[in-house]
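Margin note from the TA: students keep mixing up input and output lines. Inputs are the sequences; the output is the structure of the whole complex. Example:
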Amino acid sequence: GEDVEQSLFLSVREGDSSVINCTYTDSSSTYLYWYKQEPGAGLQLLTYIFSNMDMKQDQRLTVLLNKKDKHLSLRIADTQTGDSAIYFCAESMYNAGNMLTFGGGTRLMVKP
Amino acid sequence: SQTIHQWPATLVQPVGSPLSLECTVEGTSNPNLYWYRQAAGRGLQLLFYSVGIGQISSEVPQNLSASRPQDRQFILSSKKLLLSDSGFYLCAWTIDEKLFFGSGTQLSVL
């Protein structure tokens, strides 16, 4: 079965880097995703990585994937107060019809 | 361009009342459509998904139902709401293996 785990909470100071971690259990993942949810809003797709990649960088965002340890991380450089939100990781599996399984979300608080 | 619309944004309903939430998509045909629920401070729970008109798969047993009367319309319904139905309901669709969400409906059952 599939299971995606995230820590509940992360607090950083403005200007520092944030690293949000995620672990998953199913090795047949095809894509892994990071979503951002601001209060009262839907989930916004931030970035994604194909399972045969180790790293993907997109402006301030860096995604690292360790397939051996089934570990995914999202690094936000120069974190801003506007980055405060809940971040969800998710995995999709080809043999499950590409359905996504979500982690419970990590609440990022950025202190000025 | 492809967009997803979901309404209403907020809804307060008494226990035992019916529910109808609507989601429509534009800019594509035959999308996969999904209904998720997010309880307060919790992760996402997949409720229903649909791969085509009239095709609904249910992921969890409950007093909610879904229908897809048209290709780009997905409706979440209940005949009698329970307190436990309160939550944030999100419609979503997939494009090229990426899942995109609507803006959500905050449902409070009192």
